[in-house]
Amino acid sequence: SDYSTLPLSKLSPGSSYEVSVISLLGLDESDPIDGVVLTLPDPPTDLRAINVTDTKALLLWRPALATVDQYVIVYGSEEVYLISGTLRFPFPSDCSQELMNGVRESGVVEIFPRGKEGKPVRVYCDMETDGGGWTVFQRRKDGKTNFFRGWQEYSKGFGELEGEFWLGNELLHNLTMMTPMSMRVDLRSGSESVYAAYSTFSVDTMKRHYTLRVSGYSGTAGDSMTYHDRRKFSTRDRDPQPFITRCAMSYKGGWWYKNCHEANLNGLYNTHTDHQGVIWTAWKGKDFSIPFAEMKLRPSSFNPRTQG
């Protein structure tokens, strides 16, 4: 061959290298010949789509090691040019981080409460109420979901995220242990709507019966939740409270019962007798079952005025 070759290894992608070659004969050496080697940029990896709906999806990928000017995404026959493919929170831990990633519509998304190494979890985000960024963990709206369930089901969660559901006590514990959380309850009956906000909200471990901590009320619904502060969670098959009345059995829900309740948002839907309904005593008393209830959480440090 008219050419000599030598492979170069351990080069970095998308980098420039100056190369010199000289000839040696005994102790004599030639003048160098100089050149420049430009390595190609490496491709991005781990491409996947999250938050997929019927009309849109959010793409997520690990960026190239090389410094690049832009990424080109081709789907169908269209090309979209991005100056940067970096999300502020590539693995959002809750809906407030999804909001800061640019998601503005309420709906079901994937979050990563345990970080990028943990499994993603599907949740419903409220991006409209009081600045958005709320992770919804309970909803009552039509009575299609049975809330008179056992301990394991309340631990894991049940129902449909677009309809009625309980997100799960284990996930509630994980979410409220990551960072200090606030909590909001939205209630509606016909044309009436009220809310109760709490500046602190947390749920303890399963070993401690998912004990509730809640305080710092403000709002228009009246305070029916502080009564349940420091109470253990009870279900029909597991009631750790020392009271004579088995509250979960008597009032047909899973809840942080005391003796027994001022709020019973997981009670029987559309039941207006025996204090067994969906109840918020400070608003409608104990003989009225509220048609719509939604509970949601958001980091206490979140400032709605800085978003958008």
From TrEMBL:
SUPFAM superfamilies, per the entry: Fibrinogen C-terminal domain-like (SSF56496), Fibronectin type III (SSF49265)
High-level lineage: Eukaryota, Metazoa, Chordata, Craniata, Vertebrata
Subcellular location field: Secreted, Extracellular space, Extracellular matrix
GO cellular component: extracellular space
Segment forming the signal sequence: none
Species, as recorded: Astyanax mexicanus
Domain Fibrinogen C-terminal: 86-301
Pfam families: Fibrinogen_C
Presence of keyword Disulfide bond: yes
Main location: secreted
UniProt protein name: Fibrinogen C-terminal domain-containing protein
Keywords from the named record: Disulfide bond, EGF-like domain, Extracellular matrix, Secreted
